[in-house]
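tool_call: predict_structure(chain=1)
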Amino acid sequence: MKKLLAFLKRYLLVFSVIAVLALGTGYWFYWHLKPFTQNAFVFANTRPVSPLVEGFITEIHVKNNQFVKKGEPMFTIFQPPYQLKVKELENEIRSKEAELRSLRAQIKSSEAEIRRYKAELTNNKYLSERAKYMYGSEAVSQAYAEERLRAMQASEAQVAATEHAVEALVHQCDSVTAQIAKLKNQLDLSRIWSELTVVRALSDGYITNMTITPGGYYKPGDVLFGFIDSEVWWVQANFKENELSEIREGQPAKIWLWQYPGHEYKGVVEAVGWSAERREMSRETGLPVVKKENEWFLLPQRFPVQIRILNPDRELQLHHGASAYVEVEIPSRPVRQFFWEVFLWW
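tool_result:
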């Protein structure tokens, strides 16, 4: 027993150093075999919710932190002014269409008169030429020939005047037609504004930070609350720069969330960030600021990697901003794989 204790005392330091080196080597290969980070969080598309038309809120159909489906109403703006505008334009369009029908009827009647006047003009031209010929042979008097000439000229004037009247009516028709088209465009726009008095969810998601009540007056652009789109979820994993060389778009990834220990999510790398802001400038002098860094422990820069969660679980509700662990699956290399298996076995 004394010999065993003496042996242990003699070689305890050696065994301790060997154990520390083995653990350190295994730890190094564990962290460098596959890119892994604890600096990650869950995020989804978010957007502020604002009214699209101006007015008072009359109804609120949702509550804070509620899940809503795409197309469900969230709140309603006071509707009568927009509905009355639609009715006003509809009545104005009907009035203009009646005016257009009247103008077209007048054009049709005037065109019939033109045909009649042209027939009279043809007859008066014939009589005038005949009277002129007969006057030349002294078969009729000069007064008769002049009378037939004046009748022909009167018919020409009637035809010209009626044609000008028809032309004016056609211009009026074109003007009224253009007015009707403009009013119809205004009506379509007014119907859109009327429909937009009910603000609906653009996708499935969650209401957040809602503090509004009915009766408040709001304008387009006023942010009333936030909306988290739950159709697609991602994780932003901030990897060290010395791990980015192994990460490529399309690589599979494993994701663990702090809020659900033991549950593994599958993911895929969608994008690797290309920049991280490090420059600083003095506001007083405009000169660059160079910070003093500890040369003994110089930390590597981190870059964001966007990873899409492929199997979100409806029963395990995801939260925007939740902390996560991420491991990216990369093609194994023989040497690393050997040490990895040795480390796991040991």
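agent: The helical segments are 2-33, 80-136, 142-195, 334-345. Proceeding to next step.
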